[in-house]
From TrEMBL:
Domain of life according to the entry: Bacteria
Recorded family membership: Belongs to the bacterial sugar transferase family.
Residues making up the signal peptide according to the UniProt record: none
Domain Bacterial sugar transferase: 4-176
Species: Arenibacter certesii
InterPro entries: Bact_transf
GO MF terms held by the record: phosphotransferase activity, for other substituted phosphate groups
Identification of the protein by name: Bacterial sugar transferase domain-containing protein
Length: 195
């Protein structure tokens, strides 16, 4: 926390509105890893590899997922669960197909989830899309969000204590082994990535 205070803009905590259980909004807690006004700067709500809005400590915290630990506060408050679909910003929620919006948060959003594992390289995907000269937001709307929705529906259909334990261990594994594709070996019937 001292590192966060001494680097970037000097603040430690970050709260942001997200969509949660039964599509109700709540404030999510994180360690501050980006400049305060990042959503209103170039890039908007999307983050790319080596994004200049990421603070000096932020890169490490994001890669290690330590920036997510303050969400334990959200879990204790009852806003979130340990495992579930990641809570998204309202603008991102609006990009989900309507049939996904209706059901995705029939379970509490999670600190980690199957979508977090599959999309651990999301910043790299968006960077590649931008480098090709394509519109990242269109890629999100037309490719990422429909696929994320399918993945989260898979989770709801397969939700169990055993599945949640496997997701927790897989999350730890892919943080330490970022190139691992173990998710498709350990979880049968997952929708395949369309990209």
């Amino acid at each position: 926390m001292i590192g966060l205070k001494l680097t970037g803009e000097g603040y430690i905590w970050y709260k942001q509105e997200r969509v949660g259980y039964k599509n109700k909004r709540f404030l999510i807690w994180k360690f501050a890893t980006m400049l305060k006004d990042s959503p209103n700067m170039a890039g908007g709500i999307m983050t790319t590899k080596k994004d200049p809005r990421i603070t000096p400590m932020g890169g490490f915290l994001r890669k290690s997922k330590i920036n997510e630990l303050p969400q334990l506060i959200n879990i204790f408050k009852g806003d979130m669960s340990v495992v579930g679909p990641r809570p998204v910003m309202p603008k991102s929620f609006d990009a989900y197909p309507p049939e996904i919006q209706e059901v995705i948060y029939n379970v509490k959003p999670g600190l980690t989830g199957i979508g977090s594992i599959i999309f651990r390289d999301e910043e790299s995907l968006i960077t590649t899309v931008k480098e090709k000269g394509e519109d990242p937001w269109e890629f999100y709307k037309n490719v990422i969000y429909p696929f994320k929705g399918k993945v989260e529906l898979w989770y709801q259909a397969n939700e169990s204590f055993c599945t949640d334990i496997k997701i927790i261990f897989t999350t730890a594994w892919v943080i330490l082994n970022s190139d691992s594709d173990v998710v498709y070996k350990w979880f049968k019937g997952l929708p395949k990535r369309p990209f």
